[in-house]
Amino acid sequence: MQAKRREFAGGLPGAPVLMKGIGVERTSGPSARRTSAAARVGLVFFGLLVGVGMLLVAEGLLRLAGVAPARRDPFAGFGDSRPVFERVERKDGMAVWRTAVARGLPHSEEFLADKPADGFRVFVVGESSAAGVPYPATQAFSAWLARRLQGSLPGRPIEVVNAAIPGYASRRVLGVVREVTAYEPDLLIVYAGHNEFAESRQYQHLLEMDPRLFRLRVLLSSTRLYGVLERALGWDAPRQVDFDDIEDAKQMFAVADERLAGTAYPSERERGWGEQHYRWNLEEMARLMQDSGARTVFVSLGQNFSDWAPGASQHRAGLEAAELARWEEQVAAGRGHAVAGDCARALDSFEQAIEIDDQHAQLYFELAGCAERQGERQRAALAYLRASNLDRVPHGAPSSFNDIIQEAAESSNSLFVDGAAALAAGSSRPLPGDDLFVDPMHPNLRANQILAASIADALRQAGLPAPSAEWAEAPQDPPVEEILAADPSLRRQERLVRAASCALARRDACALAELDVVLADEPEHAWARQLREVVARRSSPGEVPGLALKRPPSSTRPPS
Predict the structure, then answer these.
(1) Which of 64, 82, 116 corresponds to the end of one domain?
(2) Are 370 and 306 in contact (CB under 8 A)?
């Protein structure tokens, strides 16, 4: 029998080695064991090749069958597996680029697939402030800019495309700009910077992933097989960083415990790296535009200085107990004078406290309030700015970012629009407050109009897209009160987003006041009722603070 087995095996080319590996012919010793192990490795490798081959065949068949790839972006814009825009055909047969469903954005934009020969195409990139939050994109500054340009140059086909995405910091905005270069841009407008120190907390699991592993995962998620699994397992529901997703928002805005401890604020080293990366990303955006033959406009950032108190304050390092006691004594005296209406004496006390400790954000904010009431607008403006920059967990960008924006514009030969100065000039306060902002950093309707006007004026002076002499008089923006009266939902959205920001900042009285107004007009508003219950429960004595909101129906959640 053994002879027959050897005869059978010997009749097949290369069979002796394989037959040894499966025990048909047994020998002993190290050589045999090495041969047996090699055969097993060979079989495993062969099996892997067969498996991979079957997957590739399946992928090819799915592509031939026209199966679509996955719709949801599992990498939140950090990868390039899901474009911001996808080519579609409208009902009238016109081919356009339209905002891709995979990005789960609160607004949809579209522009012609075939750019007109004399067309001027503008893209606006940034975060929620540029996207238009809390309004639909039709009320964002990009839309007001489009009205101005089209009205001033009626014979020129002008497209202004809002490609801003809520929650994005400059790293992901740069990815959007890379894509935009493929759509024949003439001008890029950048308004971004408020999310630079929030993104690393929200997406730490992606930012710290090995780049090779990340790239492999992006590649796999682009396959049709992944798309089939996505739809079969229900992964295709759009998801985004949204005010209604409290677990995400807690990461983006930080909770009270972190604020009080000062642990959520980046260290000086982290802040330095953040500023360096921010600068590099802006410069790279301008370079990409230059390579595509387009210009870039960098717009400095505005925010709510006068009515949004610092989230957390911290004393200077090395403050001794005796010094702290004197500081507290002066602050208490200043607050007493302020309550009594004697701001002159209050300012004296506050200044004496600052001589002891000049690092406490809240003290500067209170000093600014008294200076404003005294009519000392310049003194108040400087103190409001100082309070914002010292905030241990700020809700906006540090003022140094506006210096970086201007420097990036100058170094890249780009246009610079001082949006922050335009907003300050349009405010009734020493620095903008609730008169121009819905919450810490989202411009209201009037602020969006101001930003659009300042950008349009800069383009006219620069002769873009036509010499200034060819521009007609810019159309007048309608009064804000008329817009709000015509669409009451806009006011509701303002209140909902402000309530969300107040709740996430643990400003419960503010959140409850806004929600009560919404519920007085719309008692069954599900999202408002749910948020109010959470805030009221958290504010009750003995309750453990916590935000555990469920995702509300899409028809009632505020945009972000």
Answers:
(1) 64
(2) no
